[in-house]
């Protein structure tokens, strides 16, 4: 295999897992990340044993130490505990599943890696002697192996497969974060959460979710999600064609809808307070899926450009398994490269593609089931 480093676009969970596994196998790699190195992912992700157990050998950690280092409550001696009952992941949770702090997980994964921060990709194009990376800082790099791991809005994919569509699902979703003082958390939140790091409730077809991002001595960072099916083409809260920059444009109807919620128990009553939410940063999410065709992947592979994670098979934030899929892809692709070189990647695609396709389809089915109307209920994730 070429001695040139593998050039990985994106230093999220998938790119870092790939880079760390390649490092373990003695394969050189450089990661290019558009964002600065300052902490940027201060929220939780759900991990299952099927995804994190294979990482333990790569990281040289036992399960107890791994959870203590990355769990959302690890700094206070916790292990990210989640009660197995779930609205969002029905039947997929067990006692080994836990809530990890994404920034802590990424910090652990990137130990020893060459990450080029603030190096945003402008485009990938064919050059006179191979593929070229063009970065927004004007740098141009030739490479025998470029791997796009830069998310559902992947510039790598858009450069070379511009006709692959982003499918926007017909659901409304809003998200925000709040720092809750320890006294308030202990008296109002903790009794209802009963030791779990995620709690949910439903009102009709709307799902309300509260999750722990990070626990410190004096305060607790929490996230919330409000989601429901879109209500026709005139729904003021469903804007499938909004630009990426429109994520912070929150319609007044959202606050009216939150204000109309009735009979919420704690901690949902405290979180979903319309007056408080007006004073905070709220994000409008779009539930998207992506699946690049197998033929397209093989054609690009012949040029030395490859993909993994949600740049090639993205699932919606609710009902999807984005973090676990990214880890599984990173481990599998690194093993493939170390054993078979770049020529083995098309065969790896063939082995993985049916699973990717099935997972995307399952995530779309799951988000429909999540919002089915079964009356008001409460559960933990």
Model description:
Helices cover 33% and strands 23% of the residues. It has helices spanning 13-24, 49-59, 63-70, 102-109, 155-160, 182-193, 252-259, 268-271, 274-278, 294-301, 322-340, 345-370; strands at residues 6-9, 29-32, 44-47, 98-101, 115-116, 121-127, 130-135, 140-143, 146-148, 167-168, 171-181, 198-203, 206-215, 219-229, 282-285, 288-289, 305-307, 378-379. Residues 374-381 have low confidence and may be disordered. α1 (13-24) packs parallel to α11 and α10 runs antiparallel to α12 (345-370). It folds into two domains: 6-166 and 289-369, FAD/NAD(P)-binding domain (3-Layer(bba) Sandwich); 168-287 and 372-379, D-Amino Acid Oxidase, Chain A, domain 2. A six-stranded antiparallel β-sheet has the order 15-11-14-13-12-18. β12 (198-203) and β13 form a beta hairpin.
Summarize the helices and strands and which ones pair or pack:
Blueprint: E1 6-9, H1 13-24, E2 29-32, E3 44-47, H2 49-59, H3 63-70, E4 98-101, H4 102-109, E5 115-116, E6 121-127, E7 130-135, E8 140-143, E9 146-148, H5 155-160, E10 167-168, E11 171-181, H6 182-193, E12 198-203, E13 206-215, E14 219-229, H7 252-259, H8 268-271, H9 274-278, E15 282-285, E16 288-289, H10 294-301, E17 305-307, H11 322-340, H12 345-370, E18 378-379
Parallel strand pairs: 1-2, 1-9, 2-5, 9-17
Antiparallel strand pairs: 3-4, 6-7, 7-8, 10-16, 11-14, 11-15, 12-13, 12-18, 13-14
Helix pairs in contact: 1-4, 1-11, 2-11, 10-12
